[in-house]
Specification:
Elements: H1 2-9, E1 31-37, E2 40-46, H2 51-77, H3 88-104, H4 106-109, H5 116-124, E3 145-148, E4 151-153, H6 156-165, E5 173-177, H7 183-189, E6 194-199, H8 202-214, E7 220-224, E8 237-242, H9 251-256, E9 257-267, E10 274-281, E11 287-295
Helix pairs in contact: 3-6
């Protein structure tokens, strides 16, 4: 490449052969001028750009371009939306712990492993985005965490099994009672067509709505209200998940569940044993109930 450049610029070199000085072809000196003054020979050097000068200049510009390009690439690569976030390893460890807990409780769940789609969603949703900043270092521990207003974000294992037992399909429409920070809704949003979520505590509901919008969960719709009564305007639902413990199964939710639909709900008081129930609706508003395992949830609040 450089030979071609030199050939192109050789016409720029105008050299004079002077005894004791570099001859033609020397690319350091472009031109020598011999002057006579008072019998003395003065040699003046008139500098002109040479092939090396031009080549070096072009190389300098090339390096600058390369450095600029690398800097832009680094900025792009390290942006949160592109780079595997800093919690990737911790999230994978969380998923591994969920799988281990599922095997340990297989007698309750009647399965050794959860749906791979559910586990993929658990790995994709950024749980640290759904907890307060002072809790982010704990975000991927397999445990519930406080989110303010006396509420918690559920243990990842519980979120996973409740989601799995709903048997969500890609075209499903799901109702969630108790938006909380929005984590359960985000997991469901990875799996189904539409998610409708109701939160009774206004500040939590508004924060969750903003968070879900910022994270581009556009298939989640939220509302502020008493979830005991469901969301009749959007019924019927293929599945319903209740993320707070009720003293009984709310009749309005049974009514809004499709025939063949499933509901996951913890039932029991705050200070006594709660049971996670799987409800399946049959014709004529009849239901079948299956106890999954004992749990502990915050109570379902409201005026009911």
């Amino acid at each position: 490449m450089f030979d071609a450049k030199f050939a192109d610029c050789r016409h720029m070199t105008d050299t004079l052969n002077i005894p004791g000085t570099p001859g033609p072809g020397n690319s350091t000196f472009s031109r020598r001028r011999r002057e006579h003054e008072d019998g003395k020979i003065l040699v003046g050097i008139l500098r002109k750009p040479t092939c090396f000068d031009n080549a070096n200049k072009e190389m300098d510009l090339t390096y600058r371009f390369v450095y600029m390009w690398l800097a832009m690439l680094c900025c792009w690569f390290y942006s949160p939306s592109i780079l595997a976030d800093e919690y990737t390893r911790e999230r994978q460890q969380m998923v591994d712990e969920i799988e281990a807990d599922v095997r340990a409780t297989s007698q309750y769940l009647r399965k050794e492993a959860l749906d791979p789609r559910v586990m993929k969603a658990m790995d994709q949703v950024l749980r640290h985005e759904f907890v307060p900043s002072d809790q982010q270092r704990l975000a991927y521990l397999n445990r519930p965490l406080p989110i303010g207003h006396g509420q918690t974000i559920s243990q990842p294992y519980i979120v996973a099994i409740m989601t799995d037992l709903l048997e969500p399909a890609p075209n499903s429409k799901v109702l969630e009672i108790g938006t909380g920070s929005g984590y359960q809704a985000a997991v469901l949003a990875e799996l189904v067509k539409e998610v409708y979520s109701i939160e009774i505590i206004r500040p939590l509901g508004e924060q969750a709505a903003d968070r879900l919008s910022r994270l581009r969960y556009d298939n989640v719709k939220t509302a502020i209200g008493d979830g005991y009564y469901g969301w009749e305007a959007r019924a019927p639902f293929d599945a319903i998940v209740v993320t707070a413990a009720a003293s009984h199964i709310p009749p309005p939710l049974i009514k809004q569940l499709k025939v063949g639909g499933r509901m996951m709900i913890p039932v029991g008081s705050r200070f006594l044993t709660q049971q996670l129930l799987l409800i399946t609706k049959e014709e004529g508003d009849k239901i079948t109930t299956r106890q999954i395992l004992p749990v502990r949830f915050v109570p379902l609040t409201g005026q009911h």
